[in-house]
């Protein structure tokens, strides 16, 4: 039988994502509900090593569900990549009577957590939080839905100018390896073309497509380009290429950048964070470890951390098809 | 074999919902993609009867994906409730060479559509659009996600005042029969209590709960109340009741009202509308009729209209549980 | 020569308004800049009496410029209305070496402050913060610009429904005595009629006007109604009256309520708060007392508190004229 | 006595700005109010030359007050820079019985308009619309207030990440020649430093300042950089320079770009647009020409176009001072 958990530490690590605060809140509240102590760790794994801890109770997390970022802060830790560093981290947890750990972050966070949990036999559960939605075994990661809304609102603004001036805009959105943000925000923003890392449409086919669009009467266009897009040109080169080959258009570039990571989380992300936070505490109480709490078909699921971080981003072909049809 | 569809009419009916324009756009674009003519019908079923039609092509629906409401407008039609009215509607469709119909709306819309389709043997497909999320067979209806964001943003504003003044706010949200909006927005807005139509917690238990909250150190509180809540008191009576029984609080009421129906759709609703609109056209092309296009487990599904409108709103017990835990 | 100020206390009182936190921040930062100690007072005048104080330094106010409400909280104080209460307040300030006071709020706040300052010879400066914009001697009060944006965004959402359904909406906005919010938001939201406390257009003239609008082809309408409007009917009675007299319209009511007080302040309010906060500290340093720091013609001005709270709300006739012309 | 005006043409030219649609609406409505015909010109001066006209009545401009961009579209016209081009433009106006012209835009628009009006003796009035606020004789240009809100909302999002990671962000905002956007949004967003075109603080002083900030306990920082800033380094070079000289910080760059031009106008801009649009029509009716309608001390004023376009952007020293004090 699983040892009774009496003190759970929680940290956020890696790039911040909207909903992290809501997830911390849910962890803290669930601990309070089940009479478990909760220890906040500042600055991710580095804070574990430096014993940068704070006691958290139900009232510590009031009025944070709607705040972007993470009040526990996040940082990269080189020390945690060493066995020595992890040993110190473990000793600090023990010294503070912490007997389980919840880590909120993306694949880097899970990789470190998985290793730590195995080496030191401390129960550990992960909560997926990254705007890139590139974790296996969960339909959604925290922050992804919010980022999509941020992107479409930004492109809505750009479209005001595009359609006022009959211009072509290339808009770069996040996504080094995964095209989920580009594909969904591209459909949502009514983009004419969407370039994603998972496929290389080729610059010539892009030109053909733009020319076809022009013929059907389109007077302005938005092309959404994922960071990791595979044309071999960066977005500014791509803009020049199009301008050289299509007299009809003035081309402009907008790189949305870091605004995509911040902002007050959407209701979807707040509810998701609440479910996952509660689920993480309950999983630890039930003796689980080495897993991520995900959401699949609207239900909380447990996924092996090893599975969660497996890299196999696949394009959603149905969504690609819908994008092609609705952009005629 | 199904007769080839050559001209699809599309209308919106019932209460408007964010995403209706995006759905119309997807229908029109899919028609264009498949070389099918598309006929817009103004003012719902009444427009069918008055032959208030407009030809729509791919360019007719530019720059509307981000607009709330419905540019085809919506109205109630008493005439369509009569056999004579429906006969005229049918004759108008025939006279305009329309051979299939897509109706976008909620259960009232589907009920009328189901009857019309059976009486006059015209292929008809429904797209669920209502902020109430009270349609069976689809995980989400159009407008629901947007409404949740509108509600949590409004309550975020109210919380500024609540926590500045140590007040208790009762916030009424939509939902005569279904507590989905209240439950999700309540969790998302960090509400202390959530009153929904599916259960009557009793005013005494509410008081007990508020007193417990107060003891745990809460200095302000938000109670989210669905319109159809079952305490037997209206929201103003409820406020008086609490004020009389809890000296500690000044109680205020806010009825969110019609702002919940409007606004630019969220990315989620725009993508959903795009999938459902394309799915509706393709279903008609494949000879389907009398069905709703829904989304289940992130895939487009076909649901009998009769099933879709069956009234059996069930509370999501898991969500109720998460609400209780995260509000400690 | 004025005695050198060494410790300034700051409090917020009355209804909260967006920008209060930004004003506190500016006061604290200006104190830090000039090497003056700063003492935060929780819960307004009541906190003075209860000595509910906190030392504030430049870092205490990080990341609050964009937050609605007031982190120092606000409450009504019956005790402060008594001479005994004010004496205790004064003693508490002296005991904490506070030698000047900045009060952020509206006319009630200023009335109390004016009395207190005279009775106890403590330098006191006011910063006008109320969404109602009903303070004399300043072109703008803190929170007013933000409230206008909140109102027009809400009415934009309602208009989605109004124009989808060809409906008439009555929207109630704040303003018991002053029509500024109604008049400006009414113009900004494109309202057809605007009812304000400063004039009674009469219900018959309202009907005439609506009928004229209908004739010119308007199919939906928004009427913005200030709380303190003088028709003699409340907004629900007004709706019934219109519905009875105009068959053509379905009439709906929306009371915007408390959302108008909250929310992240606009850039305008943040900059205004920064100017006023700095101005208040500098005024005290220059030996001023019994004044409000206002903004007039984009410059910081000093206004006697007695003048500031004088009640003489006047309608802006030019704006009224613009409203009439742009709503044809 | 001035000849009676019977038909006013209106166009938008130059970069688009939020509030242009609201200004067009006000012009059209004022024409309708005064029984003057109104002719919309598509695509600015180029549309004059191509006689790309449309009759506008009061109902043509419904539901556009809240839309960004300009439905009349805007484009650059090389043809209008030639005398021949302007002659054709004039002939087109005469052929359509237009006897006065309202041009909405910035200094380029006014320069062209001034020349045209003098050459061809056609009454012409300008309305200042540009997010840069770089027109003389008016306290505000259309779009400026909205752009400030867009910028602070974007930086609020970036701050979530900055403070979660203890990072330094350089955020580039618009303003080639004028620092108004940078200075106001910098104060509004709580920036630690603000670099503007009107002064070169020097990269060493910047470093000194950042080091001082760090010492006072700041753990993250935002530097707002106007496009036309004078350090001699572009923003990416500036980031590298800081990173090389301050080990303590990871530096990130965000270029806000075109999102600043779009979006639904703020209430302030909608009201301003309404005043200016009405003022423009009334000025023409009163025989005025060669002027811009501006706003000064909250009143509509007439400014010679020659004065309006005079280049003498001056830094607001008081605002600079407030920025320095509130960023300690």
Automatic annotation (TrEMBL), chains A, B, C, D:
EC number(s) given by UniProt: 2.7.1.11
Binding site for ATP: 15, 76-77, 106-109
InterPro entries, sorted: ATP_PFK, ATP_PFK_prok-type, PFKA_ATP_prok, Phosphofructokinase_CS, Phosphofructokinase_dom, PKF_sf
Subcellular locations according to the entry: Cytoplasm
Activity control: Allosterically activated by ADP and other diphosphonucleosides, and allosterically inhibited by phosphoenolpyruvate.
Domain of life: Bacteria
One Pfam family this sequence matches: PFK
MF-aspect GO terms: 6-phosphofructokinase activity; AMP binding; ATP binding; fructose-6-phosphate binding; identical protein binding; metal ion binding; monosaccharide binding
BP GO terms, sorted: canonical glycolysis; fructose 1,6-bisphosphate metabolic process; fructose 6-phosphate metabolic process
Binding sites annotated in the UniProt record for ADP: 25-29, 159, 190-192, 218-220
Keywords attached to this entry: Allosteric enzyme, ATP-binding, Cytoplasm, Glycolysis, Kinase, Magnesium, Metal-binding, Nucleotide-binding, Transferase
Domain Phosphofructokinase: 7-284
Catalysed reactions, semicolon-separated: beta-D-fructose 6-phosphate + ATP = beta-D-fructose 1,6-bisphosphate + ADP + H(+)
Principal EC category: transferase
GO cellular component terms, A-Z: 6-phosphofructokinase complex
Annotated catalytic residues: 132 (proton acceptor)
Cofactor(s) annotated in UniProt: Mg(2+)
Claim: Nuclease is one of the keywords in the record: no
Binding site for substrate: 130-132, 167, 174-176, 227, 252, 258-261
Annotated pathway: Carbohydrate degradation; glycolysis; D-glyceraldehyde 3-phosphate and glycerone phosphate from D-glucose: step 3/4
Binding-site residues, Mg(2+): 107
Subunit organization: Homotetramer.
Entry's family note: Belongs to the phosphofructokinase type A (PFKA) family. ATP-dependent PFK group I subfamily. Prokaryotic clade 'B1' sub-subfamily.
PANTHER family: ATP-DEPENDENT 6-PHOSPHOFRUCTOKINASE (PTHR13697:SF4), PHOSPHOFRUCTOKINASE (PTHR13697)
Function: Catalyzes the phosphorylation of D-fructose 6-phosphate to fructose 1,6-bisphosphate by ATP, the first committing step of glycolysis.
Annotated protein name in UniProt: ATP-dependent 6-phosphofructokinase
């Amino acid at each position: 039988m699983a040892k009774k958990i009496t003190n759970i530490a929680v940290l956020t690590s890696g790039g911040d994502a909207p909903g992290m605060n809501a997830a911390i809140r849910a962890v803290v509240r669930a601990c309070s509900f089940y009479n478990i102590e909760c220890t906040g760790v500042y600055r991710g794994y580095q804070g574990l090593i430096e014993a940068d801890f704070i006691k958290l109770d139900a009232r510590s997390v009031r009025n944070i569900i709607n705040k972007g970022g993470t009040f526990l802060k996040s940082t990269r830790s080189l020390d945690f990549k060493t066995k020595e560093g992890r040993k110190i981290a473990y000793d600090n947890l023990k010294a503070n009577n912490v007997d389980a750990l919840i880590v909120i972050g993306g694949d880097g966070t899970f990789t470190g957590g998985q290793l730590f949990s195995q080496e030191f036999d401390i129960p550990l559960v992960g909560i997926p939080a990254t705007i890139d939605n590139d974790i296996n075994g969960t339909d959604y990661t925290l922050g992804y839905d919010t980022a999509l809304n941020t992107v479409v609102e930004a492109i809505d603004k750009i479209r005001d100018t595009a359609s006022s001036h009959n211009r072509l805009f290339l808009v770069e959105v996040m996504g080094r390896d995964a095209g989920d943000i580009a594909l969904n925000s591209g459909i949502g923003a009514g983009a004419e073309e969407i370039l994603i890392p998972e496929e290389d449409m080729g610059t010539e086919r892009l030109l053909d497509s733009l020319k076809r669009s022009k013929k059907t009467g389109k007077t302005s266009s938005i092309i959404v380009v994922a960071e990791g897009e595979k044309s071999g040109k960066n977005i500014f080169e791509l803009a020049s290429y199009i301008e050289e080959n299509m007299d009809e258009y003035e081309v402009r570039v907008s790189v949305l950048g870091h605004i995509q990571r911040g902002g007050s989380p959407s209701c979807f992300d707040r509810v998701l964070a609440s479910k996952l936070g509660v689920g993480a505490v309950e999983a630890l109480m039930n003796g689980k470890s080495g897993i991520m709490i995900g959401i699949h078909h609207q239900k909380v699921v447990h996924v092996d951390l090893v599975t969660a971080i497996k890299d196999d981003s696949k394009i959603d072909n149905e969504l690609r098809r819908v994008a092609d049809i609705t952009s005629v």
